[in-house]
Model the fold of this input.
Amino acid sequence: MASKKLKFDEIGYWSELKLDIVKKYGAAYTTIMNSQTVPLHYVYIDAFAGAGRHLRKKTQESVLGSPLNALNVDPPFLEYFFIDLDATKVSYLRGEIGDRADVHVYEGDCNQVLLREILPRLRYRDYKRGLCLLDPYGLHLNWTVIARAGEMKSMEIFLNFPVADMNRNVLWHNPTGVDPDDVARMTAFWGDESWRNVVYSPSPQRKLFGGGPDLVKATNDTIAAAFRHRLNAVAGFAYVPSPIPMRK
Done:
């Protein structure tokens, strides 16, 4: 059977800006870790690593992706863990990296790989620390991973909150027609069904006049703020900054 042909993701300005932010944060992170009086073993994790390269939409020029950017951070991380579900992208990424003992590349579902293979290696009491990029293509990340990273106290995460996929497939103004599989994906990402109470509220118009829509959908900002609160109050991350909106 012929192998699947590699197709690079095409990205625009905002995706390039996101890559630049992660790269600069990575350099600041390793500088801080490297300066600690107690030696720490600090690693970089990319849960949706892709092929390691993208194409600029307007010009089709090659753009380094987050895995290859991480490998160029100075001072370097001590270990790298890259995961992707797409076998063709994983194969290309391995070719770009070459044979390096400090780099581990996994083909598979990041939810399983992180919980079974990677996070157990990074215990706080063993002086392990990690910076983990969680940049899903959509609602493909489970809350169990986020919560586990939070409770470990050894992990920092960069999370892309996939509000576009949420709005396109789940958070409709009339939720009755949403596919049950998409609802299940939303619940898995959020961690429980409390998202329904955040997203929808009874319509004041219907209460006053007996007509109009039954429910009112919350704004993207309200939904993101509620998830930010979950990261702090439920997952246990001590510091959760305000999100930066990333447009296409």
Q: What stands out?
A: Confidence is low (pLDDT under 50) at residues 207-212. The chain has two domains: 10-160, 166-217. Residues 126 and 234 are 24 Å apart (CA to CA).
